[in-house]
Amino acid sequence: MHAEIKVADASRRASFARFASMREAGLIVIILALCIAMSLASPHFLTWGNFRAMLMSFSIEGIVVVGMTILLIVGGIDLSVGSVVCFSMVVSGALFLAGLDPWTASLIGIAVSALIGAVMGFFVTVVGLNHFITSLAAMVIVRGLCLVITKGTPLSLFTLPPEFKAIGQGNLQGVPYVIIIFVVVVAIFDFLLRRATAFRKVFYTGSNEKAAQFSGIKTNQVKFWVTVLCATLSGFAGVIYMARFGAATPTFGAGMELNVIAAAVIGGASLKGGSGTIFGAILGMALLSVVTSSLILLDISVYWQDMIKGCILLAAVSADHFLHRKKS
């Protein structure tokens, strides 16, 4: 009997040690502590309606976070994700209004988003520019194209067929399709990033590009395709947004890059490349969503929200900097 108790205690200690060693453990504790505090501060926090609203608010944006996380791991960054999301909406919406069916229009919108990623990848890998400058230029150019196509006027897409709108507005047994799609995308890329050999090259390239080249990895190809992947996922998110809101606004997605980068970095993705997980990035997204929901329920002015998110991002980047300096 005593031996069984000792074995059980040892197993619990081992489980706790494994949890504590996870980089995401601290983030999980912070989110739980914040949820407990908010449940005491507001009776509306621990309700299905509030959690459903939080999940809906970051599920589509979470798809963009997946692409951004993988790009950060390879050592890049994309400031154009918000503009690409908007561009996918605008192109798909304009093609639909021109007479194309919404499914084909959406595929074209996603394909055009991938093409934007390919152009950025070309300038990074062939011309030799860095991701920051390239994506900054792409952000401005793509946003300008959105304004040119729409002439600065939102496209009303209320005539979209119900079966297409269901992607963004429908549900399965009370669970919105948006959340289901988000979970599937996260599960697929989290698995690939952990298990697939091709995706291990992303970590090798981000950790030490020269060493990766010496080991036979074509690092420029890795960076190119990851850039394309990030833009493609942004385009996919844009199509879901279009189905959800039934409109395409040329200013949509402005500032989205802040949330996406903040979530990935808070979740453990390094701005220096070589580290990060999809699970951690989604936890970062969840933390930002809980913070936003808490501020709303506490009736704190919306003008403070961006400032608080910026402070959280600064704290996460500072922690990442000191952690890398300690390792060095």
TrEMBL record:
Membrane topology: Multi-pass membrane protein
InterPro entries documented for this protein: ABC_transp_permease
Alphabetical keyword list: Cell membrane, Membrane, Transmembrane, Transmembrane helix
Coiled coil: none
Subcellular location: Cell membrane
Principal localisation: membrane
Gene Ontology cellular component list: plasma membrane
CDD domains: TM_PBP1_transp_AraH_like
Tree of life domain: Bacteria
Transmembrane parts of this sequence: 51-74, 81-100, 106-129, 136-154, 174-193, 224-245, 278-297
GO molecular function: transmembrane transporter activity
Protein name (database record): Inner-membrane translocator
UniProt organism field: Mesorhizobium amorphae CCNWGS0123
Source species taxonomy: Bacteria, Pseudomonadati, Pseudomonadota, Alphaproteobacteria, Hyphomicrobiales
